[in-house]
Design goal:
The protein has about 170 residues and is mostly beta strands. The chain has a single domain, classed as Beta Barrel (Lipocalin), CATH 2.40.128.20. The chain is built from one helix and ten strands, in the order αββββββββββ. A hairpin with a 2-residue loop joins strand 1 (about 45-50) and strand 2 (about 55-60).
């Protein structure tokens, strides 16, 4: 029987799934690196956005500095009750990178780097209910893509996003 916490997580997942654009673009594969640093994933830095069916989805990543990349995800909707945000960061722990997510600013969940190449980074946490894997990659058109996948109950759900780079406003 699911706990209140896992029931709330599944409810949040369903809300996010209902308002999240689906991206079926293939994820590029490449040679994995043995040793990685934040500089190897600096390609994620920037302001990224997409709009679908009245939802503005944004992801912002600051460049590596002070041993961390700070990020923020926001889904804005006309109905504020359906809005969503998440604090994100990637930092070095020991000899690896970890991705830390705080949906709604709540409890942090840590995912360890499993694979990294020139245009893709995959983080995993096999003990988490959903997602168990988070991946980011740049496609051939220079768009930032992300997926969250893993098992909740039966099946293997996957959420996907695709964002275009937002150019800074002229001043």
């Amino acid at each position: 029987m699911p706990t209140t916490r896992s029931t709330a997580a599944i409810g949040g997942l369903l809300l996010l799934l209902a308002a999240t654009p689906l991206n079926t673009t293939a994820q590029p594969e490449g040679p994995a690196r043995d040793a990685v640093s934040l500089d190897d994933i600096a390609w994620m830095a920037g302001h990224w956005a997409s709009e679908d069916d009245g939802t503005l989805s944004e992801e912002l990543w600051m460049p590596p500095a002070g041993g961390v990349m700070l990020g923020l995800h926001r889904d804005s909707r006309e109905d504020p009750a359906r809005a969503f945000f998440e604090y994100l960061r990637i930092e070095t722990r020991g000899d690896t990178l970890v991705y830390i997510a705080q949906p709604g600013g709540g409890e942090a969940t840590v995912f360890a780097l499993a694979r990294c190449d020139d245009r893709r980074a995959v983080f995993t946490n096999p003990g988490h209910d959903f997602p168990k894997q988070i991946a980011y990659w740049l496609d051939d058109e220079g768009r930032l893509n992300a997926s969250a996948s893993g098992a909740v109950g039966e099946g293997d759900p996957e959420l996907q996003w695709r964002w275009e780079r937002v150019e800074p406003a002229d001043e």
